[in-house]
Specification:
Elements: H1 31-42, H2 45-55, E1 60-64, H3 76-94, E2 98-100, E3 104-105, H4 110-122, H5 132-156, E4 167-168, H6 172-188, E5 191-201, E6 206-208, E7 213-228, E8 235-240, E9 251-254, E10 260-268, E11 283-287, H7 291-297, E12 300-308, E13 315-317, E14 330-335, E15 348-350, H8 356-364, H9 366-371, H10 414-425, E16 428-441, E17 449-458, H11 470-480, E18 482-484, H12 487-498, E19 502-503, E20 505-506, E21 517-519, H13 529-542, H14 545-549, H15 553-556, E22 564-566, E23 570-571, H16 573-578, H17 580-584, E24 595-601, H18 608-620, E25 625-631, E26 634-635, H19 652-658, H20 661-670, E27 677-678, H21 681-704, H22 721-742, H23 747-775, H24 781-800, H25 806-816, H26 838-863, E28 876-879, H27 881-885, H28 892-896, E29 902-905, E30 910-912, E31 919-920, E32 927-928, H29 939-953
Helix pairs in contact: 3-20, 4-5, 6-13, 11-12, 11-18, 19-20, 20-21, 20-23, 21-23, 21-24, 21-25, 22-23, 22-24, 22-26, 23-24
């Protein structure tokens, strides 16, 4: 409180004369509440943009959406993928394109079938007891529900798309087109039915393609089994991790490149808790390199190599022949390139119905087998449930894998039963357990088996009409495709180069059918275009359900239904999604084929990218895309795969509710998405901090530009050097941003811009010019030039960052220009050529060392409490003439943000941080000798106040 005798101060309060920034743009984003309002305000902005670009004659750009599966809420991988696509859509609109982007969903297949089956099981019903029409209707309703839910999630992220015309693979038009695409393969002869071992999921009761299989560690039983020579005297020993396949054995493979010996057991290990199955005197044929390991497993202590084994023409007995006459057939030995002596015994137990190599060598040896009187038919041993068929001796009905209840996916009794019978027959030499990588269904997560079944395949190596094979066409298309990153070319190329024929049939109910008829006598598909047309027409009207609900006569026309088998397998869902280009891009006036871009996760090299490639190459001769962009997987902060069981998942809806979708968008923009990315609370906190800094930059710009008009503009040539330098930086960034958007490198857009906002603007340009902004008179050249450049910065940042930080840039743009329309309706402006100023760029870049030295010296003074603010200093800077010349025409004190500064020539750079002399100006706070005692103002402020007073008086 003032003393009563104190004289009241007569000093004027100059605060009202200072031009402080004003803006309604808040410091806090309030994104969770603000974003939905912006989305509502946009309405169907996508359609409006397309109409605008089409009216302008803009070139078409097509982004074809890889369909997510309509099953469950969106997860962080969905959020990443759809946000990246939104970056593409919005940036291409800004680059003056007419962008076609129709979002879609994959709706058929096992995951939805599983969900519906679970619902039936809860009600005590089995799927097999439910009419197909009812089951399919339930699947359709389930998928439809999740399309709606996922669409809401994607829209909340700010994703702009043709939502009104979204596609799904279960739409009637889609199903009809998928079947029509399938029929093209039928008519061209590329389709065939083959009986061969395929990966089969007993739990799901269907064949699986390579893309539907993933590998996990798995513990399997191992057995060393003796196959006695028919001629007697010795036995060939095989090793396998699938004892259940022994009943299906029909041969033993060996390699002529491996040295084999006949070994005699002379002694067993002693003091064991069990009696080994080997016995002294046993003669065993083994690869020399592996003999010691085999004897170790069999608890054999000593042995003698009797002679080199000659395997030409050797015929073996089946190891179960003693127990049942059904195994009394001869077991030939076949020479095969697939046999190695890396592990096992040097021999391969060959069950042609349960292994790819087994199948191939069996086919290759067909003439040899028939010459030996061996039946070359491939036996069928295991049924769709993974149980032995009734005709399998000794083991009928036993399951390889459990398919029901809590034990589903676990080993059934088959392995154990086979081992017991081998012991009984005296032909089990040893057994153990092995943890190894084993194929599992990527949906049920249950182990799969190789099982011989009749399936439908598309040929990869059959010459087509122009002499090329499907494989050759696909590889040629890969060579012509642009990849981001380019490593994707080798990845998908390697897969296509070595992949087997395309297995496209599945034994399930929910999907598009292999809608064709097969001649019962010849086994050949009916190739009649009139029949095909009737099938497709009815599917357009009724969907794929027509195939299951209608009798064959409705499709066959004049053909006799009794002569034809109606195929009711469904198509591989990869064929469904691989056909999406046919019903989403083709046949539309406002779209085009092929697409400019497909953008998905790197796993789609074996999935959608590849199925689309094969489908299109098989029907159109080339890929349906020009460019492929892939992103990596999203991991937790520690680089671990996310899992609900580990509790390390990041749910998009939680982040949106707490921080806003803009934070997820900024995270997506900052990561190198082409590699695996990480996300978690700490990472999101860092992203949020970056967001706050950027938001404050926009807030400062809006405040500083309050009341700015064209009348205030300054021509580039008349601007001070600092403003010309900043315009040069904008010129540089414009080229960098355009290049990054063109190359889908979004982090190369946002990271340089964040750095620019922080380093070039906040701590440099803004800091230097805040004195001129606040304290210069409004008509001063420096202040007008500054505001002219701020206007350019605002214009560029809002448009450059518009595709990425779409909510915040929209808010900033409409805050300043509420009647100018949406920010996203703009296009990238041409950058004036006179913004380029290499000389000023070189000057200010070279000057950084001096400015940094002064800043460092002043920071020491502050830390030692010799000064408070930098305006209390007037340093003397000793520096070489070349550096001193950089300051020609500039105010060193202004650049150093001090009240004064003196530059003197010297051999090296030295800063002497002297205190400023004079009095403190009450308005700008600079300490100068010119400050008058009566007004307490410096000359600049005195002039500004006088101008302010006159403007108020008028």
């Amino acid at each position: 409180m003032a003393d009563a005798n104190d004289t009241p101060s007569t000093a004027r309060d100059y605060r009202e004369t200072v031009f402080l920034p004003e803006t309604p743009f808040p410091m806090r984003g309030g994104l969770p509440q603000k974003e939905p309002a912006i989305i509502e305000q946009w309405g169907d902005l996508y359609s409006a943009l397309r109409k605008q670009r089409q009216a302008e004659g803009a070139p078409l750009y097509v982004l074809h959406d890889g369909p997510p599966y309509a099953n469950g809420d969106i997860h962080i991988g969905h959020a990443l993928n759809k946000t990246l696509k939104d970056f593409v859509v919005r940036s291409r609109f800004l680059l003056r394109n007419d962008v076609d982007y129709v979002p879609g969903w994959d709706c058929h297949g096992l995951p939805i079938e599983w969900k519906i089956e679970e619902e039936y099981r809860k009600k005590g019903r089995r799927k097999d007891d439910v009419p197909t029409a009812e089951f399919r209707a339930e699947c359709r309703a389930y998928a439809g529900h999740w399309i709606g839910e996922q669409m809401k999630g994607f829209q909340r992220l700010g994703v702009m798309a043709d939502w009104e015309n979204r596609y799904s693979t279960m739409d009637f038009k889609s199903e009809a087109t998928i079947v029509a695409e399938f029929q093209k393969f039928v008519m061209s002869g590329q389709l065939y039915r083959g009986s061969k071992p395929v990966m089969w999921s007993p739990v799901e009761r269907t064949a699986l393609a390579d893309a539907e299989v993933e590998y996990h560690d798995h513990v399997s039983p191992t057995v060393w089994v003796k196959f006695p020579l028919v001629s007697g005297g010795a036995a060939v020993v095989i090793w396998t991790t699938t004892p259940w396949t022994i009943p299906a054995n029909r041969a033993v493979s060996y390699s002529p490149r491996i040295d084999y010996g006949v070994y005699e057991v002379t002694a067993l290990e002693e003091n064991l808790e069990f009696q080994p199955w080997a016995a002294p005197g046993d003669r065993l044929i083994l690869a020399d390199k592996l003999a010691e390991e085999v004897f170790k497993a069999a608890k054999v202590a000593a042995w003698t190599r009797v002679e080199t084994a000659n395997l030409d023409g050797v015929v073996l007995q089946h190891p179960l022949a003693k127990l049942d006459a059904g195994y009394g057939f001869p077991v030939p030995m076949l020479a095969g390139d697939h046999v190695t002596d890396d592990a096992g015994t040097g021999f391969v137990h060959t069950a042609p119905g349960h292994g790819a190599d087994d199948y191939l060598i069996w086919l290759k040896s067909k003439q040899q087998l028939e010459a030996m009187g061996v039946d070359s038919a491939i036996p069928e041993t295991v049924d769709p449930d993974g149980a032995y068929y009734p005709h399998v001796p000794l083991f009928a009905g036993l399951k390889v894998l459990e398919t029901e209840g809590k034990k589903a996916g676990k080993f059934g009794p088959a392995n154990g039963a086979v081992m017991e019978k081998l012991i009984e027959a005296g032909n089990l030499l040893a057994r153990g357990r092995l943890e190894h990588s084993y194929p599992h269904s990527w949906r049920s997560k249950a182990p799969v088996i190789f099982r011989n079944t009749p399936q439908w395949f598309i040929r990869m190596d059959e010459p087509l009409e122009n002499g090329e094979t499907l494989r050759q066409r696909a590889l040629k298309s890969i060579a012509a495709t642009t990849f981001h990153p380019d490593s994707g070319r080798n990845r998908i190329g390697g897969m296509v180069e070595t992949r087997p024929d395309w297995l496209i049939s599945r034994q399930r109910a929910w999907g598009a059918p292999l809608a064709m008829f097969v001649d019962k006598e010849t086994g050949e598909p009916l190739r009649d275009q009139a029949v095909n047309d009737r099938i497709v027409k009815l599917m357009h009207e009724e969907g794929a359900d027509a195939w299951f609900n209608r009798p064959a006569a409705d499709f066959l026309g004049n053909h006799d239904p009794a002569k034809y088998e109606k195929v009711e397998d469904i198509l591989d869902v990869w064929f469904d999604s691989g056909s999406t280009h046919a019903f989403t891009l083709e046949g539309r006036d406002d779209s085009g084929w092929p697409a400019d871009l497909y953008l998905e996760g790197s796993d789609q090299h074996r999935g959608w990218f590849q199925s689309s490639l094969l489908e299109s190459c098989g029907t159109r001769g080339r890929a349906p895309y020009k460019t492929l962009v892939t992103h990596g997987f999203t991991l937790d902060e520690n680089g671990q795969k996310m899992s609900k069981s580990l509790g390390n998942t990041v749910e998009p809806h939680v982040v949106i509710a707490e921080s806003g979708a803009e934070i997820l968008r900024l995270w997506t923009a900052t990561v190198d998405y082409m590699e695996d990315q990480r996300i978690g609370k700490t990472i999101l906190a860092t992203v949020t901090d970056s967001y706050r800094k950027l938001r404050n930059t926009m807030r400062y710009l809006l405040g500083a530009l309050d009341g700015f008009t064209d009348a205030e503009r300054v021509a580039v040539a008349d601007m001070p050097p600092l403003e010309q330098y900043i315009l040069h930086r904008l010129w540089q960034l414009d080229a960098q941003v355009r290049t990054a958007y063109e190359g889908y490198r979004f982090n190369e857009v946002v990271r340089p811009l964040l750095d620019f906002c922080q380093s070039d603007l906040s701590v440099f340009f803004f800091d230097i010019r805040k004195d001129a902004l606040y304290c210069d008179r409004p008509d001063s050249l420096t202040r007008r030039a500054y505001r002219t450049v701020l206007d350019a910065i605002f214009e560029r940042l809002t448009i450059w960052l518009g595709p990425l930080m779409t909510f915040t840039m929209e808010e900033a743009w409409t805050t300043r220009f509420p009647d100018a329309g949406s920010n996203i309706l703009r296009v990238f402006p041409e950058t004036p050529s006179d913004w380029r100023n290499d000389a000023e760029f070189e000057r200010w870049t070279a000057m950084e060392s001096v400015v940094s030295a002064v800043t460092g010296a002043l920071e020491i003074e502050r830390r030692e409490k010799r000064i408070g603010a930098s305006l209390e200093a007037a340093p003397t800077v000793e520096l070489p003439a070349a550096l001193a010349k950089l300051f020609d025409g500039l105010s060193a004190a202004e650049i150093f943000r001090t009240s004064g500064a003196t530059l003197t020539d010297a051999g090296e750079l030295t800063v002497r941080p002297f205190q400023a002399s004079g009095d403190k100006c009450d308005r700008c706070w600079r300490i100068l000798p010119e400050v008058k005692a009566d007004t307490r103002l410096c000359l600049r402020c005195e002039d500004a106040v006088e101008a302010w007073d006159k403007s108020r008086a008028a």
